[in-house]
Design brief:
The chain is an alpha+beta fold. It folds into 2 domains: 90 residues, S16 Ribosomal Protein, Chain: A, CATH 3.30.1320.10; 27 residues, no CATH class. 36% of the residues lie in helices and 24% in strands. The chain contains 6 helices and 5 strands. Strand 1 and strand 2 form a beta hairpin. 16% of the residues are buried.
């Protein structure tokens, strides 16, 4: 069964509203679908795009092919780049370990390995740093 990530049109005449779904490629445009991934409302300013990233990434990892419009929406939200980076083995910016500068390594990390890699093991007293900022103005 080939799965596509595509849009289902809802709403009334001249007032479209789309659901982003994972569906069998043989089913009708507004027919049966496997899972709803989000929605897209082009009538609001700016257009409202809501996609559940965990569901979309699950289907992309399993081989679902997005249509051109669905791929465009995934790109606008940032899910397509995240999937592409994951596929190439690159770290994503959304990865919490990248934000603090820690390399993602399997296994346990002991304190001696973290001391020299840009993470300070000393606690910082925020009250002292705030007091020193106030002294500069005097």
């Amino acid at each position: 069964m080939a799965v596509k990530i595509r849009l289902q049109r809802h709403g009334r005449k001249k007032r479209p509203f789309y659901r982003i779904v994972a569906a069998d490629c043989r089913s009708a445009r507004n027919g049966a679908f496997i899972e709803r991934l989000g929605h897209y409302n082009p009538l609001t300013d700016p257009a409202e795009i809501v996609i559940h990233s965990d569901k979309a990434l699950k289907w992309l990892r399993n081989g679902a092919q997005p249509t051109d419009t669905a791929k465009n929406l995934l790109s606008k939200v940032g899910i397509w780049k995240r999937f592409h980076d994951e596929k190439l083995g690159l770290a994503s910016i959304d990865d919490p370990f990248v934000a603090v500068g820690v390399d993602v390594v399997e296994g346990s990390a002991d304190q001696s390995s973290l001391d020299g890699e840009g993470i300070s093991a000393e606690p910082v007293d925020t009250d002292q740093s705030l007091d020193s900022q106030g002294n500069e103005e005097e």
